[in-house]
Amino acid sequence: MSAGTRVAAQPRGDGLTPWPADVAARYRREGWWSGTTCWELLEDAVRHAPERIAVVDGPRRISYAAVEQRALGIAGGLRDHGLERGDRVVVQLPNRLAFVELTLALLRIGALPVMALPAHRDHEIGHLLALSGAVAYAGPRRHRSFDHVAMAGRLRADAPALRLLLCDEPADGAVDLEALAAVGRAADASDPAPAPGDVALLLLSGGTTGLPKLIPRTHDDYVYNARASAELCGFDASTVYLVALPASHNFPLACPGILGALAVGGRVVLTEDAAPAAALPLIEREHVTATALVPALLLRWLESPLRERADLGSLRLVQVGGARLAAEVARRVRLQLGATLQQVFGMAEGLLNYTRLDDPEEVLAETQGRPLCPGDELRIVDPDGRTVADGEEGELHVRGPYTLRGYYRAAEHNARAFTPDGYYRTGDVVRWHASGNLVVAGRAKDLINRGGEKISAEEIENLILGHAAVETCAAVAMPDEEVGERTCAYVVVRDGHTLDLPALVAFLRERRIASFKLPERLEVVRELPLTNVGKVDKQALRTAIRARLARERAGDDAGAGAEAAR
Ligand code: OOB
């Protein structure tokens, strides 16, 4: 092969598609990859101020030194149970101390947390276990009246590699993480540790295909992600960060999130309940200075009568991302919460765009920020892959020092999801704003963004197609004031059958899927519209449901008007 020939990067045995050697060398030279592991981020902070409180979970307040000892206790215990560097562990813990400590322990050993969501059920967890070949599953015993230990038991039969169950409370057949943490352990530099270039963890993709893909993030790239974000957001030892979103999402985990706050000696406050009644008093009690929200949650906080009752004076920064934020809502953050708004347009795949703390108010309200790193390469392209004129809309492609080059064990999908020169096709339609920031204008990918939770249309369609009454179907987003988008299922019913929404939902619940994926409206139609190349015309369906909802709302308003006149 002649020098300079471009070849698609080959995945390594551990599922990582490496960056080309010359690119990696540049990332190191520039200092973006610092040769640090995620565990070492914590170690630095421990050395600096061991007695400082690192994590608050309800009544529990754990110092940096104690978090280190407790995480090392878990790490040692897991090693005694045979867990090794490179092993995968599906982690499905809610926002509790055990989530932070187990994650740190796994990062110390070099075992890979697979970051599942508490809302996931057998369908998703089973898939994650199979795809990752996980040897362990960690979950709560019961959470929101769901028995996670029983689920793990059900899934065992189809997950031959799974041999270890971890729980944060005593449970039959499970290793008790709290017991391992309580034993503790001192740091021992001779314990085997991962290398900075190793995969640190596997995040879940929003996913546009049948089932979620896994995103390998290396220590080098994730340390950069957390540290550079912390610096950009002004995090320091006085930062008190509230984890309001599910901690396994990239946003609260490392943007700057938990890892960013811990890296600079700040404090992490956990809550399992982000509703105003729980979160707002917690901000007052713990003097929270920063948090990350999705627009739907921000709206609940703004609309809550409790907002005026709690003293939110400590709050300096409210990050909002994960879905489109309306400019009118954005403007209310300073007025009604007394904090600086930061819009974050990010993705678990890597690229993070942040508005800067000193951007002018209208830029804070109207744009979704600009890239974190000078090494981020962004291209906005038309459907033929040609770069559009400045200010024009197009699909965003990106590569850079913390953006993946390939999904985990997904060669076929990778061939489509990346350009031959290594850019990730985000599926987001964006344009440059005059300020130099990006505006997210829409989406070219087929998913439903329900308040920041991404639902793959194909995944839900495949499930619906399993129903005996369904001939064919299409899932599309319908607009919603509260959560932005909800799922509407268009279904063509087989001759002689009937179907209504409760029956469809009951059928899907039996498939044991996360409930945020359930369709919230069913439209039974005689046929689905097709494009001129014969594919289902989803745009037409989205337009139809939007018009229908508008008509219904107008009808309601007219009805309410008539009612009032009577
Ligand atoms: C975050 O990560 P994911 O992986 O759950 O979802 C990424 C997708 C983006 O491709 C985009 O479609 C959408 O979510 N998105 C936004 C947005 N932020 C993300 N759409 C409009 N406006 C925004 N501000 O959602 C995520 C990861 C890290 C930080 C923040 C969000």
UniProtKB/TrEMBL annotation:
Domain AMP-dependent synthetase/ligase: 42-408
Residues annotated as domain AMP-binding enzyme C-terminal: 459-535
GO molecular function: acid-thiol ligase activity
InterPro entries, sorted: AMP-bd_C (IPR025110), AMP-bd_C_sf (IPR045851), AMP-binding_CS (IPR020845), AMP-dep_synth/lig_dom (IPR000873), ATP-dep_AMP-bd_enzyme (IPR050237)
Record carries keyword Ligase: yes
One Pfam family here: AMP-binding
SUPFAM superfamilies: Acetyl-CoA synthetase-like
Keywords, in A-Z order: Ligase
Family indicated by similarity: Belongs to the ATP-dependent AMP-binding enzyme family.
Protein name: AMP-dependent synthetase and ligase
Species this protein is from: Conexibacter woesei (strain DSM 14684 / CCUG 47730 / CIP 108061 / JCM 11494 / NBRC 100937 / ID131577)
